[in-house]
Design a protein that fits this description.
Layout: H1 5-8, H2 12-15, H3 21-34, H4 40-43, H5 48-63, E1 64-65, E2 68-69, H6 71-92, H7 96-111, H8 120-125, E3 128-131, E4 134-138
Antiparallel strand pairs: 1-2, 3-4
Length: 139
């Protein structure tokens, strides 16, 4: 199974820069409606690890230049996974934690990084209103 990486990660740079709760909520709703269906093979797989490897290989192949993924692209991909992919899998799937654990481990190994994941509510609650970089209240 090959994943439609272009559709899943469309506008990845834009979507990885979220500043407010309202923005994050809207982007998450759009992600669930427009892109989450692309993960059907992953979330329904009997061999989750093998499917995670396939997904990560497809992403790597879709973003590599000269045999590796550029630093900026890697950062945006990591944020996208943390903001949208992991929280959506956790909220939508009964075995979401098992899937996310496997996906995180395979992702970190393939992309030589160290990301982790959390749920949507934890991320949502973390946004704050700032003026000149100073937090003044939660949005």
């Amino acid at each position: 199974m090959s994943y439609n990486v272009n559709k899943i990660f469309e506008d990845v740079a834009y979507l990885s820069k979220v500043h407010t709760k309202k923005e994050y909520e809207a982007h998450t709703i759009n992600f669930k409606e427009d892109r989450y269906g692309e993960f059907e093979a992953l979330v329904k797989a009997s061999d989750v690890t093998a499917e995670c490897k396939q997904f990560c290989e497809d992403v790597f192949a879709g973003f590599k230049k000269f045999g590796k993924v550029r630093g900026t692209d890697q950062m945006n991909l990591n944020y996208f996974m943390i903001y949208y992919v992991f929280p959506t899998i956790l909220s939508e799937e009964e075995k979401g934690q098992e899937i996310c654990d496997n996906l995180k481990d395979v992702w970190n190994e393939r992309f030589k990084c160290n990301i982790n994941y959390t749920d949507y509510n934890s991320l949502y609650d973390g946004f704050q209103t700032k003026i000149f970089g100073i937090p003044i209240r939660r949005n």
